[in-house]
Amino acid sequence: MHTRSNNDKAIYRKTITDRIFWSVIAVGAVIASLIMVLIVIFLVVESYDFIDRVGVLHFVTDDGWWPLDQLYNLTPMLVASLGVSFGALAIASPLAIIFSVYCVFYNKGWWQGFFERIVDVTAAIPTVIYGFWGLMVVVPIMNKFTSHGVNLFSGMLVLAMMIFPTIAMLTTSALKSVPFNQIQGATALGVRRSSLIKKIALPHAKPGIVMAMILGITRAIGETMVVLMLCGNVVQFPSSLFDPTRTLTANIALEMPYAMGDHRSSLFVTGLMVLIVVSILVIISEVYANRKRTMNH
């Protein structure tokens, strides 16, 4: 009887603890969601009156970005943001996939988790450190080959280094999620490791790899310090990889401290454009993931 009473008390305490834990998690999720909604509302409210008064076309058809002269063309900076982000993704993704395949299928022995730990640590490095390293190392090298050491390509290289850990960690997790019985069965049938990776592991992990790439590029598009320090900050359509240019986020960081009136409102429109681009990428990734889940079921 006494033992049963103790068991009941233990179960009751565990139930209360679980309820408290999940309540805290739920409250945290609600607060985080509300913060995101409030940010979106804030951007829309700050931008709406200006967009309604000026018109959407001015942001793509004006002669340039001269806010004091009522010229608000954001297209060059949008192209630069997409160019540097997709360029960084094109550099980082293959390297991250190769790294993950090596860590999961080839990296054995006492150093099995060593490289993964290093990548985990590099993911926590502040972006300003990446930018400073780029100024001290990448820019002097670029100056030897082009007249502008701070340019689109310099930003791509350092941005690729910055998003590499994110893509690599998520890709590694996706490859580790491949069912062990499939790998074991293929190995028992004498399938070579290279064929196993190509025919079984990578197709199974493809949705996770795509999500990792989407997360990487959304981080790249939202990055400020690296592109501010390395891309040159000239508002123009880049005609080559070695032209200086300015991204949307760098534009906000540079001009918000002194912007007033319509100039300030136009910078909120810039932020809203960044949010729209990132939202489109997230929606694409969700649609792709849902389609893959449907196909698998």
From TrEMBL:
One of its GO terms (biological process) is phosphate ion transport. GO terms for cellular component: plasma membrane. It comes from the Bacteria. The chain crosses the membrane at residues 20-45, 77-106, 118-141, 153-175, 208-235, 267-289. Pfam families: BPD_transp_1. The keyword Ligase does not apply. Gene3D superfamilies: MetI-like. CDD domains: TM_PBP2. InterPro entries: MetI-like, MetI-like_sf, Phosphate_PstC, Phosphate_Transport_Permease. It is a multi-pass membrane protein. One of its GO terms (molecular function) is phosphate transmembrane transporter activity. The keyword Protein biosynthesis does not apply. Keywords: Cell inner membrane, Cell membrane, Membrane, Phosphate transport, Transmembrane, Transmembrane helix, Transport. Belongs to the binding-protein-dependent transport system permease family. CysTW subfamily. This is Phosphate transport system permease protein. It comes from Pleionea mediterranea.
